[in-house]
Amino acid sequence: MTDHYRETTPLPTGRIALVALFVTALVTAQMTASKLLGFSIPASLPFTGDMLVMPGAALAYALTFFASDCYSELYGPDEAHKMVNVGFAMNFVLLALVYSTIAAPAAPFGSIDPATFERVLGASLDIVVASLLAYVVSQHWDVLVFHRIREWTDGERLWVRNVGSTATSQLLDTFIFVFVGFAVMPALRGGDPQALNALLGLVVGQYVLKLLIAVVDTPFVYAAVGYLRSRGSAAPAPRTAD
After folding, report:
1. Is 229 helix (H, G, I), strand (E, B) or coil?
2. Range of the domain at 75
3. Do 184 and 128 form a contact (C-beta atoms < 8 A)?
4. What are the φ and ψ backbone dihedral angles of 109, each rounded to 5 degrees?
5. Which residue from 13, 4, 3, 14 is spatially nearest to 224, judged by alpha carbons?
6. Measured between alpha carbons, how far is residue 142 from residues 37, 169, 217 in Å?
7. pLDDT block averages, 10 residues each, the chain of length 242
8. Would you say residue 239 lies in a domain?
């Protein structure tokens, strides 16, 4: 057994760290989606006014695209798609653990009210379906666009594929999550214009924040990719994607 472990090629620490960051941010997003955040801004935007409103998941979820783009750049599209699929499976593990904990009997002397625990952690079926659908579509799209841009730029201009892939995939993610997760509201089905404006406000708020993060994290993508290559965590990237 000892000889077997000595002969096995170790997985680079940097690669493990990127997968860990991706999955951690992903499950954190799932857990924080129920809280609505509001950020005051100096200018007024359509539908959202002078406040960006978004689910709490937007902050953590934006980190998944940073990790995904770094991973795509270093290890290629096939490996990036595998990481997305692993993250998708881990969502179901998270949901199974959370709902089994909710269903388990509570101790009579516990300090947390079981109903409060369920209300905070037990997302509605609409939100769960919207979150999973938005995730699997937008993340695979992100990998696809990232490497399509890489081909078009002959492996140059990492910033273009980082911002371009994230900008399009985050738009997909935002529309899918908001309209699948919230469009079933009775007020919206009844054609209430205020409900529709509220949904569009969520779309604008989320997307503006996510796009800003995509631009701001570009230097960090360069830094992470450069560092991991210098440490031997990945081979030098080919000029074009496979």
Report:
1. helix
2. 2-230
3. no
4. -100, 10
5. 14
6. 25, 5, 15
7. 50 86 89 79 77 78 88 92 93 89 86 82 75 90 93 89 89 84 57 68 80 87 90 61 41
8. no
Distance from the Cα of residue 14 to its chain's centroid: 19
**Residue 240: inside a domain, yes or no?**
no
Tokens 């965590």 found at: 233
Total of domains in the chain: 1
**Does 10 reside within a domain?**
yes
**15 in Cβ contact with 74 (< 8 Å):** yes
Give the CATH number for residue 200. Answer: 1.10.1760
**What one-character-per-residue DSSP string does 198-238 give?**
HHHHHHHHHHHHHHHHHHHTHHHHHHHHHHHHHTTSSPPPP
Q: Is residue 33 part of a domain?
A: yes
Integer Cα distance of 4 and 64 in angstroms: 34
Model's pTM, two decimal places?
0.81
Instruction: Please list, in sequence order, all residues whose beta carbon lies within 8 angstroms of the beta carbon of residue 120, skipping any fewer than 6 positions away.
Output: 34
Q: What is the pLDDT of residue 184?
A: 58
For residues 211 and 148, the answer to whether their CB atoms sit within 8 Å is no
